[in-house]
Design brief:
Strand content: 5-15%
Radius of gyration: 20 Å
CATH topology: Butyryl-CoA Dehydrogenase, subunit A, domain 3
Membrane topology: Multi-pass membrane protein
Transmembrane segments: 20-46, 72-94, 106-128, 134-157
Subcellular location: Membrane
Distance between the termini: 36 Å
Oligomer: single chain
Keywords: Membrane, Transmembrane, Transmembrane helix
Number of helices: 4
CATH architecture: Up-down Bundle
InterPro entries: PMP-22/EMP/MP20-like (IPR050579)
Helix content: 55-70%
Length: 166
């Protein structure tokens, strides 16, 4: 008689608003709030009478045309916003919907957080290399991307504590 045993690892997810999952939620909530403020305002760059945001620029009553690099920045920052919103939805699903796989949701959250940060940083690098006089809207979106990175790192920690393997 041959007896075979199989060992399966069971992931145990500790989900609490006071724990790591709550910290991820708070970081992503603040990140979305700050990112939308920076995304929508016209103070990415200010030089004298010239003000520029992602969607509007103005120089003494004249509106200028956007260059190709600027369209690339708009695309990267918009993809970052979409990813940030998706990450927020994933953390809400992770914390509140118990009928879906917690492991897959957490893995997706990690991937989306880090990909969003990559797109954001690409947009920041392009914009920062082309413009002088970076101002508060730019800074707010950079802070938001740091919060998204923190959420991604906390998600990895949550994965490790829950025993999730990729």
């Amino acid at each position: 008689m041959v007896i075979t045993t199989t060992t399966t690892s069971v992931s145990v997810h500790t989900i609490s608003f006071r724990g790591i999952a709550g910290s991820i939620f708070v970081a992503l909530t603040l990140a979305i709030l700050l990112y939308v403020i920076g995304f929508a305002t016209t103070a990415w760059s200010i030089n004298g009478a010239y003000r520029e945001g992602l969607w509007e620029n103005c120089r003494c009553g004249k509106i200028g045309d956007a260059q190709d690099w600027f369209h690339a920045v708009q695309a990267m920052i918009t993809i970052g916003l979409i990813g940030l919103i998706l990450a927020f939805l994933l953390v809400c699903i992770y914390m509140c919907v118990h009928s879906l796989s917690k492991n897959k949701t957490l893995i997706a959250l990690v991937i989306v957080c880090f990909l969003s940060v990559v797109f954001m940083v690409i947009g920041f690098i392009i914009y920062g290399s082309k413009r002088d006089g970076l101002h508060w809207s730019f800074a707010v979106t950079v802070i938001s991307s740091i919060l998204c990175l923190v959420a991604g790192i906390l998600s990895v920690v949550q994965m490790r504590q829950s025993g999730v393997r990729m």
